[in-house]
Amino acid sequence: MGRAKYVDDIELEGMWHGATVRSSIPRGLVRSIKFDPAVNWSEFAVVTAGDIPGKNHIQLIFADQPCLADGAVNHCEEAMVLLAHANKQKLREGIDAVQIDYEPLPPVFTIEESERQDVIVWGEDNVLKSFLLEKGNVDEARAGAAHVIEGEYRTGAQEHLYIENNGVIAEYSETDGVTVWGSLQCPYYVHKSLMAVFGLPEDKVRVIQTETGGAFGGKEDFPSVLGSHAALLAMKAGRPVKMTYDRMEDLAATPKRHPSRVRHRTALDATGRLLAMDIEVATDGGAYSTLSPTVLSRATLHSPGPYVCPNVRVRSRAWATNTVPYGAFRGFGAPQAIFAIERHIDEIAAAIGMDPIQLRRRNFLHDGTTTATEQVMREPVILDQLLDRALAESNYYARKKQFATANPTSAVKRGMGIAAFFHGSGFTGSGERNLNSLAGVDVTSDEEVRVLVSSTEFGQGTNTILTQIAAEAIGLNVNDVMMAPPDTRVVPNSGPTVASRTAMVVGRLIERAARQLVTMLRDDVGLNDTFTREDFFAACGRFRAMHGEVVSLCRYEPPPNIFWDDQKYRGEAYPAYAWSIHVAQVAVDTVTYSAEVEEFWAVQEAGRVLNPVLAGGQVEGGVAQGIGYALYEKVVWQNGRMANNQMTNYIMPTAEDVPPIHVYFEEIPFQYGGFGAKGIGELPHDGPAPAILNAIKDATGVSFHAIPLMPEDMMAKLTVPSTIEEPAIV
Known about the structure:
Elements: E1 16-22, E2 28-35, E3 45-47, E4 72-73, E5 79-85, H1 88-96, E6 98-104, H2 111-116, E7 127-135, H3 138-143, E8 147-155, E9 167-173, E10 177-182, H4 187-198, E11 205-209, H5 222-237, E12 241-244, H6 247-253, E13 260-268, E14 274-286, H7 292-302, E15 312-320, H8 334-352, H9 356-363, H10 383-394, H11 396-406, E16 412-425, H12 431-435, E17 438-443, E18 449-452, H13 462-474, E19 481-483, H14 502-525, H15 533-547, E20 550-555, E21 564-565, E22 570-571, E23 576-589, E24 594-605, H16 612-631, E25 637-638, E26 641-642, E27 661-666, H17 683-686, H18 688-700, E28 706-707, H19 711-717
Parallel strand pairs: 1-12, 8-28, 10-11, 14-15, 18-19, 24-27
Antiparallel strand pairs: 1-5, 2-4, 2-6, 3-5, 7-15, 8-13, 9-10, 9-12, 13-14, 16-23, 17-18, 17-20, 21-22, 23-24, 25-26
Helix pairs in contact: 4-5, 7-8, 8-18, 13-14, 14-15, 16-18
């Protein structure tokens, strides 16, 4: 309707604009920062590291990332100086007038360079985080195996490309502290960093989410950086300051999906049964740790795939390099790991002469089996049922047969590919216990039920789902329920809006709080077992007269039998899993060396589907992003800087590139999720890339082990038989 107010639509009285002076080298010492005397700097607010009143770090898992570089830089585009001015044109001139002199130091740009440790750029060994997952005895099992198959698989960086770039507005007062409005996912993450940067107590920091035009994980951690920058400028300028990035700055300076390299060494018996999986996961974390530990953890846990294997060893490391720090992106490490295992399963099948469908069936997890962390599958696992439906809906075998007949004489070769996978819902291991989330509902004097959460809406449906849950649990129409503003002065900390946790974890809290509210009204003011809307709000009025407010809050309670050992890296990694089968049909033009996804099928079980339209949209969007990850979206690095930081040369799929996507759900409600829901937001991004590359292998007979798979990559490996007639040029 055009009524939404995004950050750049908001104007405050006397507001200035802020901008960032950034490092032009990937690594070095700062000799001097000079300000051109030709510029009247009295017109500007200028902030350097020395102006920070608290700690010069962004408070995430580790506090290794400075808010502003101080004496050294570790990646191109690192923030060094902040400027604010009333006039945007003057601000651009000011950026150009700041001169920085460096003493360059040798940089590290790749996982392999970091592994060699010839140059140490982080800690003592360049390792941001490492994990070791062990089950059984891999070496003994491999010694007696009929087959041992090895493979290496790589994924590149991926940009989020949310519609709205990063932006915040900040205000500072000596008496009231800091207030930040922003396009963001996690208000309390920003709140925590602002407390550290300004040395303020929590009641002197306020964070308010504005309308947010997309995020996909890209606004999980970075708004803590931008919010701190704008607030420092507001403090120095004595007035509100707005900072919004244009697309080129946003692409160049903000986090992306972690590049990865995964090596598999897999042992099987003569029947194709998995005996041992030896896996090495390496991710590129960039210059600072930010969210790399949690991304690496999820990659580690998903790397064995949805398969039963008695002996598993996963050694994983996140390596430091001198690039912009990598961060959260939809899937959070799982897409990298699942690409590797699902490509590897097809390679195993080819090596031992087995149908890849049958190889998967032979090794699927089922009820009562255990994962690599020895988690017993207590909830139903219906992978065979999902696979049967995916094969039937896609007419998989008939199409494969048809394409196999037509391909030898055609320049355009078609193939079918499949991927089977799972995705853990909620935070990994003890994460949800540590978060200890709080959420609830209240009722205003205007007869409105409000959902009290810090979980945010950025296009994925949070507001719709949580108001649905509250209305259903109370017994009201959804129009009687609204979301409280995502403001840290108003709502409790229900945890970050990440990790496919909103409907399952936060939704369950809202369901409990809403039912608790009804019980409170029955016990305290005599609300009947059956009631009308008028009865409910009349009871709320009586309750308010007695207690002053009508509010019901609930704290997170883990499901029973969920225990995780952080030291042994073993136990129930997630309270629940969503499961899926993806099937892709591709066409490969052996003249232009381009691949196109012609049709796509996605069958999933993600608990109860609370809103079919939103759930279907999540799957379609995830598949579209996965197609970009597989075939289009390539970040080009030059000396540590993103060289293609504009949408003319960083290519994403458009509506013309997205095929018909057929979405199907099987529902098994999870009793500890909001009305039976599990996570759906990240799952659909996990499967497209391996399904597509498996289909390209089926079409061409040639294996590719890295994404994004560009035409030049295919040209290097494909040969066109001379018997094929090239199409006429029209």
